[in-house]
């Protein structure tokens, strides 16, 4: 019979070891996210895949915030983050630092997630937008490309925390040897 692994058997890094390890060259950009619970989930997913960091923009809540801490479960202590009042400033900062910038959005000119080609020689920024309005048009005008997750049901979108997990997994799957 299968059994769950104990916390000791999971062999997780200490926060100090996590900070010192080489990071996956991905930065999440959260563009005016309304729900602090979604922000906390993004922190937890970023920790799980050892992302380089998170940029919190506009109305997006920042740590320490009760709802972020509830879903992040300590990841705000391990994942580096920065706040930008304007998402466009965050995007310009990332582009100047050599990041390839993608918005995750439903637009006319997009690349389906399964068709994105990720290279270990590049750094990536992934922008996720407001739960109602999506990624702002001013930000879309600055990105290198847009990614869309295929969907087959009656709803027109996924929760941001689900989208973050799906997109990061595809990028990490292509970047890391398993």
Overview of this structure, please?
The structure is a single chain. The chain has 178 residues and is of the alpha/beta class. The chain has a single domain, classed as Alpha/beta knot. It is 36% helix and 21% strand. It has eight helices and seven strands. It has a seven-stranded parallel beta sheet with strand order 3-2-1-6-4-7-5, with helices on both faces. Helix 3 links the parallel strand 1 (24-31) and strand 2. The longest helix has 16 residues, at 160-175. The model has no long low-confidence stretch (mean pLDDT 96).
Summarize the structure.
The chain has 178 residues and is α/β, with parallel strands linked by helices. The protein has helices spanning 7-10, 15-20, 36-48, 66-72, 75-78, 87-96, 137-140, 160-175, and strands spanning 24-31, 51-57, 81-84, 99-104, 111-112, 123-129, 145-148.
Relevant terms:
8 helices; globular; Alpha/beta knot; alpha/beta; 7 strands; seven-stranded parallel sheet; 178 residues; single chain
What's the structural blueprint in terms of helices and strands?
Layout: H1 7-10, H2 15-20, E1 24-31, H3 36-48, E2 51-57, H4 66-72, H5 75-78, E3 81-84, H6 87-96, E4 99-104, E5 111-112, E6 123-129, H7 137-140, E7 145-148, H8 160-175
Supply the number of structural domains: 1
Work out the number of β strands.
7
Fill in the CATH topology: Alpha/beta knot
Could you describe the largest sheet, including whether it forms a barrel?
7 strands, parallel
């Amino acid at each position: 019979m299968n059994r769950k692994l104990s916390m000791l058997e999971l062999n997780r890094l200490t926060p100090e070891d996590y900070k010192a390890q080489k990071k996956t060259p991905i930065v999440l950009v959260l563009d005016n996210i309304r729900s602090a619970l979604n922000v906390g989930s993004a922190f937890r997913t970023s920790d799980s895949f050892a992302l380089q960091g998170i940029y919190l923009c506009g109305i997006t809540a920042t740590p320490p915030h009760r709802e972020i801490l509830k879903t992040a479960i300590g990841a705000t202590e391990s994942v580096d983050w920065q706040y930008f009042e304007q998402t466009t400033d965050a995007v310009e900062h990332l582009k100047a630092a050599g990041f390839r910038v993608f918005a995750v959005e439903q637009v006319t000119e997009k690349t389906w997630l399964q068709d994105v080609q990720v290279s270990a020689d590049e750094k990536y920024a992934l922008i996720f937008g407001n739960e109602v309005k999506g990624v702002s048009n001013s930000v879309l005008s600055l990105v290198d490309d847009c990614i869309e997750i295929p969907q087959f049901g009656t709803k027109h979108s996924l929760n941001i925390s689900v989208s973050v997990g799906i997109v990061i997994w595809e990028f990490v799957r292509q970047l890391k040897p398993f």
